[in-house]
């Protein structure tokens, strides 16, 4: 080989190495840390086209014959659902999926024998049609309720339903109209922000002395008190800087990230206001939980093992090539499982990681996946499928630390 050819070969190798390094750098942060923004892009779905904008229906609006999709998970407003729909599933409603960018996401009720009366309106923001399937990403927008008399027994996961958009009423302070206008600007006794409220708490106590109930009764009907109490409790598992400050966003963030049973989620979905949601969530947060196998109930992970591998939080929705949606909670440690088959990077939800199927060591039922990488940190973690788990509520004293 001539020197010229050898030089060209070396240059080609150098370019290849640089390109590979750039590709690796795009999947890692400093010191090999995994970029938690990558899972939110759902790159495994391939290149998708941007569609639509931001749509909100009026409170109480009735939407006739809306496309409804039934899945084994429920996505609350503000969060993303990745979905693969096969063309053979759609039949006569193919045009609704291609041209209509809004649909209602529904799931089973507490008995798992029929559809729940409540769901979430989703808006498609990216989609593509290729090779006999429709790949899409949709964002939760508003809660909705199926109008009585229009329910259809679920056979396939796509159908037409009439739904009513549920309102999000504005929550005022319980003493909003009790202070003189001249004092509101100087010594306000209520505030949306907890820190500001506590700054003037002495004046609030003076003000509340004119009412028949103890001051704490009024305190615990302020949104800012619940936001603070929920945030302080969640600090055990999550960094405070990642927790939303807006009451409405926090109430939905909690559902998507805290380990709740299906029935508990439906209870929260039915709450009429953000104040009702926060009250219920604070109560649920005080119950210690263990993640166990959904079939034989053997313990798999503790609440303390949970950590975030995505900017969306510790629990996110991902879709496999067959169109099945898995709400996946990431944990650093797991027990009582076995691995099945070879590891693979194909269709990986976490770019750069290879996945291996996890089964329960006791009953052999599916639990989720082990993810491993030689180049990223952490080098190993587990993605547990929420639909394959049973969330045990146990006394805190019985937890083995």
Question: Could you please describe the fold and organization of this structure?
Answer:
The longest helix has 24 residues, at 3-26. The chain is globular and about 70 Å long. With 401 residues, it is an alpha+beta fold. 25% of the residues lie in helices and 28% in strands. Residues 1-31 and 397-401 have low confidence and may be disordered. The protein is built from 11 helices and 16 strands.
CA-based shape: globular
Class from helix and strand fractions: alpha+beta
Low-confidence stretches: 1-31, 397-401
Please compute the radius of gyration using only Cα atoms: 25 Å
**With helices defined by DSSP (H or I, 4 residues minimum), what is the helix count?**
11
Helical residue percent band: 25-40%
Order of helices and strands: HEEEHHEEEEHHHHHHHHEEEEEEEEE
Total number of strands: 16
Q: Please state how the strands of the largest beta sheet are arranged side by side.
A: 10-11-15-14-13-12
Mean pLDDT: 81
Strand content: 25-35%
Give the biggest beta sheet: 6 strands, antiparallel
Straight-line distance between termini = 66 Å
